[in-house]
Design a protein that fits this description.
Layout (H helix, E strand, L loop, with lengths): L9 H4 L5 H24 L5 H18 L3 E5 L10 E5 L4 H10 L5 E3 L11 E11 L2 E2 L9 H6 L4 E6 L12
Parallel strand pairs: 1-6, 2-3, 2-4
Antiparallel strand pairs: 4-5, 4-6
Helix pairs in contact: 2-3, 3-4
Length: 173
């Protein structure tokens, strides 16, 4: 009879937040969502810029309530201010929230959607990386549910701004 040894995966070895911390995060999240709902209801429908600002604040409030930090790591060359479209490798709503705070008001496409860029727009790629105090997380270890996010300790979403892909003439061969 042979004995097999099972080693814990990084996700299993990560420390989990205390139950009291998880409850506090969920209560803060509920308060943040209620506050955003009230502010949204009070804004006139014609207040487009205020609504865009509210979306950024909503994302920041949710991330703050869950104690998730967003770290923006910029490229050496700044992105253009107008006509940019973010092309991202992210999956899930946590990445959406991080991108909303890191590049407010900028449309986001998945990396497979670069063929449908609007004419004259500039593709601005980003790479999202997730880490805790224990180190970077593999794709399968990224917290995706509210329970996983509230249980995470020291969760940081790194938004790496890569050089913009400026539109240019297409090479014929």
């Amino acid at each position: 009879m042979t004995a097999t040894t099972s080693f814990p995966r990084l996700a299993d070895a990560r420390p989990s937040a205390a139950p009291a911390t998880q409850r506090r995060r969920k209560l803060r999240l509920a308060r943040a969502l209620a506050g955003v709902s009230v502010r949204s209801a009070l804004l006139p429908r014609s207040a487009t810029r205020s609504r865009q600002r509210l979306q950024v604040c909503r994302a920041a409030d949710i991330l703050t309530a869950l104690e998730v930090r967003v770290q923006l790591i910029g490229g050496a060359v700044p992105w253009p201010r107008l006509g940019r479209v973010i092309v991202s490798d992210h999956t899930g709503w946590l990445g959406d929230l991080a991108l909303s705070t890191a590049a407010p008001g900028t449309p986001v496409l998945g990396r497979d959607s670069t063929r449908v860029l609007p004419v004259g727009s500039v593709a601005c790629p980003v790479a999202l990386r997730y880490r805790t105090a224990a180190g970077y997380l593999a794709a399968e270890d990224i917290p995706r549910t509210l329970a996983e996010i509230t249980a995470a300790t020291g969760l940081v979403v790194e938004v790496h701004r890569l050089p913009a892909l400026l539109p240019g003439p297409v090479n014929a061969g």
